[in-house]
Amino acid sequence: MAFDLGSLLQQYLGGDGALKHDRAEDDFDQVAQNAPRATVARGVTEALRSDQTPPFPEMVGQMFDKSDPAQRAGMLNQLIAGLGPTLLTSLAGGTLGSLFRGRDTPAPITPEQAATMTPEQVREIAEKAEQENPGIVDRMGDFYAENPALVKAIGGAALAFALSRIAQGIRQRH
Asked: Rounded to whole angstroms, what are the CA distances from 14 to 11, 25, 76, 163, 164?
Protein backbone atom coordinates (compact mmCIF):
# COMPACT_ATOMS: atom_id res chain seq x y z
CA MET A 1 0.00 0.00 0.00
CA ALA A 2 1.40 3.38 -1.01
CA PHE A 3 1.85 6.20 1.48
CA ASP A 4 -0.86 8.86 1.10
CA LEU A 5 0.81 12.20 1.85
CA GLY A 6 -2.33 14.14 0.93
CA SER A 7 -4.52 12.33 3.46
CA LEU A 8 -1.98 12.75 6.23
CA LEU A 9 -1.56 16.47 5.56
CA GLN A 10 -5.30 17.03 5.20
CA GLN A 11 -5.53 16.53 8.97
CA TYR A 12 -3.38 19.64 9.48
CA LEU A 13 -5.45 21.95 7.29
CA GLY A 14 -7.74 24.12 9.40
CA GLY A 15 -9.34 22.92 12.58
CA ASP A 16 -7.73 22.54 15.96
CA GLY A 17 -4.10 21.53 15.63
CA ALA A 18 -3.93 20.85 19.38
CA LEU A 19 -5.45 17.45 18.79
CA LYS A 20 -2.54 16.55 16.54
CA HIS A 21 0.39 17.58 18.73
CA ASP A 22 0.86 14.07 20.03
CA ARG A 23 1.16 12.66 16.48
CA ALA A 24 3.14 15.53 14.97
CA GLU A 25 6.59 13.95 15.42
CA ASP A 26 5.66 10.73 13.61
CA ASP A 27 3.71 12.64 10.97
CA PHE A 28 6.61 15.03 10.39
CA ASP A 29 8.95 12.08 9.75
CA GLN A 30 6.56 10.79 7.08
CA VAL A 31 6.11 14.21 5.49
CA ALA A 32 9.84 15.00 5.48
CA GLN A 33 10.48 11.73 3.63
CA ASN A 34 7.70 12.18 1.07
CA ALA A 35 7.07 15.89 0.47
CA PRO A 36 9.20 18.11 -1.77
CA ARG A 37 12.16 19.43 0.23
CA ALA A 38 11.45 23.03 -0.77
CA THR A 39 7.91 22.72 0.61
CA VAL A 40 9.21 21.25 3.86
CA ALA A 41 11.75 24.12 4.10
CA ARG A 42 8.99 26.72 3.64
CA GLY A 43 6.83 25.06 6.30
CA VAL A 44 9.70 24.89 8.78
CA THR A 45 10.68 28.50 8.02
CA GLU A 46 7.12 29.68 8.64
CA ALA A 47 7.10 27.83 11.97
CA LEU A 48 10.43 29.45 12.92
CA ARG A 49 9.04 32.87 12.06
CA SER A 50 5.52 32.56 13.48
CA ASP A 51 4.22 34.32 16.57
CA GLN A 52 2.21 31.13 17.22
CA THR A 53 5.36 29.18 18.02
CA PRO A 54 8.24 29.84 20.44
CA PRO A 55 10.67 32.57 19.35
CA PHE A 56 13.23 31.68 16.67
CA PRO A 57 16.25 31.82 19.03
CA GLU A 58 14.53 29.52 21.52
CA MET A 59 13.71 26.92 18.87
CA VAL A 60 17.26 27.08 17.45
CA GLY A 61 18.62 26.52 20.97
CA GLN A 62 16.29 23.54 21.46
CA MET A 63 17.37 21.98 18.17
CA PHE A 64 21.04 22.64 18.94
CA ASP A 65 20.64 20.88 22.30
CA LYS A 66 19.31 17.75 20.56
CA SER A 67 21.90 17.75 17.76
CA ASP A 68 25.06 15.72 17.32
CA PRO A 69 28.39 17.62 17.04
CA ALA A 70 28.39 17.65 13.22
CA GLN A 71 24.83 19.02 13.12
CA ARG A 72 25.75 21.59 15.76
CA ALA A 73 28.67 22.76 13.63
CA GLY A 74 26.41 23.01 10.58
CA MET A 75 23.85 25.05 12.51
CA LEU A 76 26.47 27.43 13.88
CA ASN A 77 28.12 27.89 10.49
CA GLN A 78 24.73 28.84 9.04
CA LEU A 79 24.05 31.29 11.86
CA ILE A 80 27.39 33.07 11.77
CA ALA A 81 27.71 33.28 7.98
CA GLY A 82 25.96 36.65 7.87
CA LEU A 83 27.51 38.21 10.95
CA GLY A 84 30.65 40.32 10.98
CA PRO A 85 33.76 39.66 13.10
CA THR A 86 33.13 42.55 15.49
CA LEU A 87 29.70 41.23 16.40
CA LEU A 88 30.83 37.62 16.62
CA THR A 89 33.67 38.34 19.03
CA SER A 90 31.18 39.89 21.44
CA LEU A 91 28.73 36.97 21.33
CA ALA A 92 28.68 33.80 23.38
CA GLY A 93 31.04 35.20 25.98
CA GLY A 94 33.71 35.81 23.33
CA THR A 95 33.90 32.10 22.50
CA LEU A 96 33.60 32.77 18.77
CA GLY A 97 36.37 35.38 18.69
CA SER A 98 39.08 32.73 18.55
CA LEU A 99 37.73 31.56 15.21
CA PHE A 100 38.90 34.73 13.48
CA ARG A 101 42.60 34.84 14.32
CA GLY A 102 43.25 38.07 12.40
CA ARG A 103 40.93 37.24 9.50
CA ASP A 104 37.86 39.06 8.22
CA THR A 105 35.80 35.89 8.17
CA PRO A 106 35.81 33.03 10.64
CA ALA A 107 37.13 29.60 9.87
CA PRO A 108 34.27 27.12 9.67
CA ILE A 109 33.27 25.85 13.09
CA THR A 110 34.29 22.25 13.61
CA PRO A 111 32.21 19.65 15.44
CA GLU A 112 34.76 19.77 18.26
CA GLN A 113 34.34 23.54 18.62
CA ALA A 114 30.56 23.26 18.38
CA ALA A 115 30.59 20.72 21.21
CA THR A 116 31.93 23.42 23.54
CA MET A 117 28.94 25.72 22.93
CA THR A 118 25.83 25.70 25.11
CA PRO A 119 22.24 26.02 23.91
CA GLU A 120 22.08 29.37 25.74
CA GLN A 121 25.06 30.68 23.77
CA VAL A 122 23.46 29.50 20.54
CA ARG A 123 20.19 31.24 21.48
CA GLU A 124 22.16 34.45 21.92
CA ILE A 125 23.83 34.00 18.53
CA ALA A 126 20.49 33.20 16.86
CA GLU A 127 18.87 36.26 18.41
CA LYS A 128 21.64 38.55 17.19
CA ALA A 129 21.72 36.87 13.77
CA GLU A 130 17.97 37.39 13.35
CA GLN A 131 18.28 41.06 14.33
CA GLU A 132 21.18 41.66 11.95
CA ASN A 133 19.92 39.53 9.08
CA PRO A 134 16.22 38.50 9.14
CA GLY A 135 16.92 36.26 6.13
CA ILE A 136 18.76 33.94 8.49
CA VAL A 137 15.39 32.39 9.36
CA ASP A 138 15.00 31.29 5.73
CA ARG A 139 18.55 29.94 5.69
CA MET A 140 17.92 27.97 8.89
CA GLY A 141 14.57 26.65 7.60
CA ASP A 142 16.42 25.32 4.57
CA PHE A 143 19.14 23.80 6.76
CA TYR A 144 16.55 22.08 8.94
CA ALA A 145 14.71 20.72 5.90
CA GLU A 146 17.98 18.95 5.08
CA ASN A 147 18.11 17.66 8.69
CA PRO A 148 14.46 16.93 9.49
CA ALA A 149 15.20 14.83 12.57
CA LEU A 150 16.35 18.03 14.30
CA VAL A 151 13.03 19.76 13.72
CA LYS A 152 11.30 17.37 16.09
CA ALA A 153 13.06 19.11 18.99
CA ILE A 154 10.80 22.17 18.60
CA GLY A 155 7.86 20.31 20.11
CA GLY A 156 4.47 19.09 19.03
CA ALA A 157 2.70 22.44 18.73
CA ALA A 158 5.39 23.97 16.51
CA LEU A 159 5.58 20.77 14.46
CA ALA A 160 1.81 20.79 13.95
CA PHE A 161 2.11 24.42 12.81
CA ALA A 162 4.89 23.50 10.35
CA LEU A 163 2.82 20.58 9.06
CA SER A 164 -0.18 22.87 8.50
CA ARG A 165 2.02 25.20 6.44
CA ILE A 166 3.48 22.29 4.46
CA ALA A 167 -0.08 21.08 3.80
CA GLN A 168 -1.06 24.54 2.54
CA GLY A 169 2.00 24.66 0.30
CA ILE A 170 1.20 21.30 -1.26
CA ARG A 171 -2.46 22.21 -1.71
CA GLN A 172 -1.46 25.43 -3.50
CA ARG A 173 0.77 23.47 -5.89
CA HIS A 174 -2.15 21.30 -7.02
From this structure: 8, 19, 35, 11, 8
